[in-house]
Design a protein that fits this description.
Rossmann fold, six-stranded mixed sheet, single chain, 331 residues, 12 strands, 12 helices
């Protein structure tokens, strides 16, 4: 493997000049820079990124702690972050906490041991206090969550507004008996989405039947189980608002297996507007979450932190309803 001294010899410059060309922080004459780059290409020289990070105290690597890797939401989030950081000559290093507190902490330790310049954190398990403390050790931005006391370093969605829109859409179509399937209520986004449902129902003067609120776990199977529970308990409902699309599709498939017609017998609204909401039959009406915009904002905020620039731009993102074929007036 060629060395920096060999590059310097071929280019007829000092090793220090080669370093300046690679770091790009000190001006170098164009003719000299060209000779160094030609020598590097001729020899197939690859800079030692670890050595460069020691010298500059920058790794140009950003760590992402993510609760889990599966699903379109996470895929869009990671893709957008990687694209935005690459445009700014940064690499993204990803570690999953697998929705476990211990593993999320291990992921943070791993990324910091790799000398990441900053962290992007999408976590449900780490406490607010833990994240505020971590922000004192390393530049970070929290994604898809709002932390009191760390608002300037958060990029998140107004989940309450989104669920309000979904429930209000059902009410505007004439529904008065609306059940709700939540995500795990210890998670901030699930609790906020339930809050939006309650707000819309109360604003319309509708009585909320607590037995019509079923807690799920975001998975399709819990959507199926939720409508089974509603049916067995005898709860009356002509419509379902659901905390995410996976559970909504699970509920829809279960009801279709019983012979219930969607939306003629029961109307249904999901949340997240995942790509497969287009492909189920009937097409699922859902609340669109601007994951790409949230990720772009998060990466821009972190880059500003690293450069010591003011944090500007949008931090809280609004949702909108995408109407398809699962909502109609009640029978």
């Amino acid at each position: 493997m060629p060395t920096i001294k060999e590059v310097a010899s071929l280019a007829r410059v000092s090793p220090a000049t080669v370093s300046r060309v690679m770091n790009g922080e000190v001006p170098v004459a164009e003719q000299t820079r060209q000779r160094v780059e030609d020598a590097m290409r001729h020899l197939g020289y690859r800079p030692n990124s670890f050595a460069r990070s020691l010298a500059s105290n920058r790794s140009d690597c950003i760590g992402l702690v993510i609760s889990h890797l599966a699903g379109p939401f996470m895929g869009t989030l990671m893709t957008t972050l990687e694209e935005q950081l690459r445009l700014n000559h940064k690499s993204l290093l990803v570690a999953s906490g697998h929705d476990e507190l211990t593993r999320e902490k291990e992921s943070i330790d791993f990324l910091m041991s790799r000398r990441c310049d900053g962290l992007l954190i999408q976590s449900d398990r780490l406490s607010d206090d833990a994240l505020i403390k971590l922000a004192q050790e390393i530049p970070l931005v929290v994604i898809n969550r709002r932390i009191a006391g760390l608002e300037e370093q958060c990029s998140h969605v107004d989940n309450c507004q989104g669920s309000y829109l979904a429930t209000r859409h059902l009410i505007n179509n004439g529904h008065r008996h609306i059940a709700y399937i939540t995500g795990p209520l210890w998670k901030q986004d699930a609790a906020q989405r339930l809050e939006g449902y309650r707000l819309a129902m109360e604003e319309a003067g509708l009585v909320i039947d607590e037995a019509a609120i079923i807690e799920g776990n975001w998975l399709e199977s819990s959507g199926r189980n939720a409508v089974l529970t509603l049916r067995e308990s005898g709860v009356r409902f002509t419509a379902l608002a659901v905390g995410n699309d996976d559970m909504a599709i699970g509920a829809m498939l279960q009801m279709q297996e019983w012979g219930w017609r969607i939306p003629k017998d029961v109307s249904l609204v999901g949340f997240d507007d995942e790509v497969y909401a287009h492909f189920v039959t009937p097409g699922l009406t859902s609340v669109h979450v601007p994951v790409d915009a949230m990720a772009q904002s998060a990466s821009a905020q972190l880059l500003a932190l690293l450069d010591g620039k003011p944090l500007e731009g949008q931090r809280c993102f609004m949702t909108h309803l995408v109407e398809r074929k699962t909502v109609a007036p009640p029978p």
